[in-house]
Amino acid sequence: MPHREEEHLTGQQASRITYTLESSLDSVNKVEQTAEQMAKKAGIDEDEIFKITMAVREAAVNAVLHGNSYDPDKRITASFENTGESLVIRIADQGKGLDPATLPDPLAPENLLRGSGRGIFLIRSFMDEVHFKQLHPGTEMTLIKHLGTAQTGS
Amino acid sequence: MSMKVSTRQVDGITILDLSGRITLGEGSVQLRDSVRDLLAKGSKYILLNLADVNYIDSSGIGELVSAYTTVRNQGGELKLLNLTKKVHDLLQITKLYTVFDVKDDEASAIASYTRA
């Protein structure tokens, strides 16, 4: 069962939900669905919801598959926060760490026909900011979408 | 949530009508198995109808690329038909749109194969 913490910050409208989840595809789906609900609730338009949801899914896949290698003893942590100005999603794994500088460019001609290696490229394409932080052990990826430009209506 | 595959033959071309999601896990594996089975049976001219594929992730994109190269390496041809806007846009930003032969009309897609 996922462990869930919900924190409503007083004095502002921000709220944060954090899940600690097993290294499984079910967890990826859970994280994806939570991101979609969060983006919908924030009044974001449909195209941007798709991009955010996909970026978050890719980050969760990265954590489960490349970070934790489906290890049943390792967990991923996913936190979702609407600061009022941005959606901030943090996904952390307990793997051996990821240096984004070493990732091959999936758009390079010699890499175009590779069967993998596009996840982080898509995350960067779809979010406004992406940050990597080395944990010990593991990696935390922070995905940020600024509200305002992405919102429909007001 | 998973993907469905149905197969039909038109003028020597095998059309795979895919629907649902091509993502890590089920969808990607189904696509890989379907293409592998066709090649094992000698069907090398394959058209993937993606009209009802509403979602594809990086794993699914990778699987399309792998299917394309596998079929090509066996002397066949794999083409894509009826991309949804989302899949089209994903292939554009990953620079794969020009790698694949993408069609939007089934009859002309069938006619475009250079059968041995």
From TrEMBL, chain A:
Enzyme class comes to transferase
Which GO MF terms are attached to this record? protein serine/threonine kinase activity
Q: What EC number(s) does this enzyme carry?
A: 2.7.11.1
Kindly indicate whether the keyword Kinase belongs to this entry: yes
Question: Which residue windows are transmembrane per the record?
Answer: none
What are the alphabetically sorted keywords of the record?
Kinase, Serine/threonine-protein kinase, Transferase
Could you tell me which residue ranges the Histidine kinase/HSP90-like ATPase domain spans? 22-145
One Pfam family it belongs to = HATPase_c_2
Q: Does the keyword Secreted apply?
A: no
Q: Which InterPro entries match?
A: Anti-sigma-factor_SerPK (IPR050267), HATPase_C_sf (IPR036890), HATPase_dom (IPR003594)
Q: What is this protein called?
A: Serine/threonine-protein kinase RsbW
Species of origin reads Silvibacterium bohemicum
